C-alpha cells in the first residue's frame, strides 16, 4: 500500500496549535476572565498536597473563614473540604469601583496519593491556612516465599 507524501507547512501547524491553546484557555477561564473581571461568586481555595514516608499533608488557603464553617470528609481515598466564605461587605452607601474578592460556598476534592488512616487524621487552622495531616496506613509488606525443589 503506497502512502502519499504531503508538503509540511510549519506555519499552518503553529496556527492550529495557537487555536487549540486558545480553546483550552477559553474553556477553562471563560471568555471574560482575561481582564480584571472578578470570578463572580466562584471561589475555591488553593491547595497543596505533599507526601512523606509517614503521612500525606494537604494545605489549603482559606483566609477569612471561621474554622467551624469548614467541613472535612474522607471517602475512600478522596479527601473533600467544604465550606463557605461569607461576604464582609456592609451597605453604607459606599461606591465600589472594583470588587475582586469572591465569596460563596466551595467544595474541593483531592485524591490522596496513598492509603491513610482515617481515624488519625488531624486538621489545624492557623493564619488563614488549613493543614490536614493524614498518617499513612501500615502497609502489609509482601512476604517472599522460597520455592523448594524436591
Walkthrough of the structure:
With 150 residues, the chain is an alpha+beta fold. The chain folds into 2 domains: 9-38; 47-88 and 101-135, Immunoglobulin-like, CATH 2.60.40.790. The chain is 13% helix and 30% strand. The chain is built from 1 helix and 7 strands. It has one helix at residues 10-29, and strands at residues 47-51, 55-61, 71-75, 78-85, 104-111, 122-126, 129-135. The strands form 2 sheets. Strands 1-2-7-6 form a 4-stranded antiparallel β-sheet, with no helix packed on it. The protein has a 3-stranded antiparallel β-sheet with strand order 3-4-5, with no helix packed on it. The termini are far apart. The relative contact order is 0.19.
What is the CATH domain class of the largest domain? Mainly Beta
CATH architecture of the largest domain: Sandwich
- Backbone CA Rg: 25 Å
Number of helices in the DSSP assignment? 1
Mean pLDDT: 81
User: Which sequence of strands runs across the widest sheet?
Assistant: 1-2-7-6
Label the overall shape: flat
- Please report which band the strand proportion falls in: under 5%, 5-15%, 15-25%, 25-35%, 35-45% or over 45%: 25-35%
- Along the chain, the helix and strand elements come as HEEEEEEE
Q: Helicity level, as a percent range?
A: 10-25%
Q: How many strand units?
A: 7
CATH topology of the largest domain: Immunoglobulin-like
Number of domains: 2
Amino acid at each position: 500500500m503506497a502512502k502519499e507524501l504531503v508538503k509540511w507547512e510549519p506555519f499552518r501547524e503553529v496556527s492550529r496549535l495557537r487555536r487549540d491553546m486558545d480553546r483550552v484557555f477559553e474553556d477553562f477561564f471563560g471568555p471574560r476572565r482575561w481582564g480584571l473581571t472578578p470570578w463572580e461568586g466562584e471561589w475555591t481555595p488553593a491547595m497543596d498536597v505533599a507526601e512523606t514516608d509517614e503521612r500525606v499533608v494537604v494545605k489549603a488557603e482559606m483566609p477569612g473563614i471561621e474554622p467551624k464553617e469548614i467541613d472535612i470528609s474522607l471517602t475512600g481515598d478522596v479527601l473533600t473540604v467544604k465550606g463557605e466564605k461569607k461576604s464582609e461587605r456592609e451597605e453604607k452607601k459606599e461606591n465600589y469601583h472594583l470588587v475582586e474578592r469572591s465569596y460563596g460556598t466551595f467544595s474541593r476534592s483531592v485524591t490522596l496519593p496513598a492509603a491513610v488512616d482515617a481515624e488519625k487524621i488531624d486538621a489545624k487552622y492557623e493564619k488563614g491556612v488549613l493543614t490536614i495531616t493524614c498518617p499513612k496506613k501500615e502497609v502489609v509488606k509482601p512476604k517472599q516465599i522460597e520455592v523448594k525443589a524436591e
